[in-house]
Amino acid sequence: MSSDLLVCGLGPAGRALAHRALAHGLSVTVVDPNPDRRWSATYAAWADELPNWLPPTVIASSVDNPVAWTRRRIDLRRRYVVLDTPALQDSLDLPGARIISARVADIPRPSRNRPESARLLTGQVLTATRVVDARGIPRSPDRAEQTAYGVMVRRPDTETLFMDWRLDNGAAPDAPRSFLYVVPLPDGTTLFEETCLAGRPALDLTELRTRLHHRLRSRGIEFTDSDPVERVRFPVEGGTPGRRTFGAAGAFTHPATGYSVATALRTADAFVAGHSLWPPTARAVHALRRAGLRALLGLPPADLPGFFDAFFALPVASQRAYLSGRDDLRGTAAAMSALFAALPWRLRRDLAAATLGLG
Q: Least enclosed by CB within 10 Å: which of 113, 115, 292, 318?
């Protein structure tokens, strides 16, 4: 039995795509090894990135001015929201979809004489008018990753910290840097998470755990070994842009932040309608963002706070263009140029070498 759309993978991106396809009246088949698995990761986004169709019940908390600590305290003038992960998953319901619990072995490239299809490990072949890979990005030593270790502590009225680069986590000044991320969760706890933004290789979770515990103790924040924890590890590069991939598998992951869920939610309707998500401007922005990742990976660790100090000093519109404007070529290029001009000469030299692949 063929469908209008076959979605391989039921993470946030695949589930959002299938949900919106059903809302538009398409017949949908979804394949995932564990389609009933409950999500446990913490997802957040800038409020202006989310689509209007998303129900407000999926917003667990919001803050108008999250804080970044670089070499100084900076209030970010952009509303930031933490999503209620179970509510988000439940809102992306799949009424009428054909759900198959299986692992996809191969998605062959279609040809004139062969319809779009996916072959399962069982040998079964599923066909559809359109087959989309939403299975994410496989890990590889060649790919930069983001890692994080977090603990959920019952501590009300804690300030939301988007990035805190202060050196009170016990790491040596010349060691690879990590920052503290702090957001309120819907169950009344607060997530304190030590994060390696990007590394090849990234900091391991044991090191991040040690740094987080040191930081919490230095700030007088009580925690216990029985507090729930969150472990994060995923590639921030990879994926293939095109009409047959979606979400992280479709190169939606921002190479400099690791964010992709809001982009998948925001673009699902256009993707279902058959619109191209990768015009030349979007491909050019993606190339600039990858250059930005090379720059971050090439910077000396001690210079990261200064880099973000200059970035968050940019006008909000410029920050938004770089962080969220996936096809805003003019805005992204202008933001990167303004950032480059605001940095000291030594840092500009290091950035240029890293961006061009010389460092």
A: 113
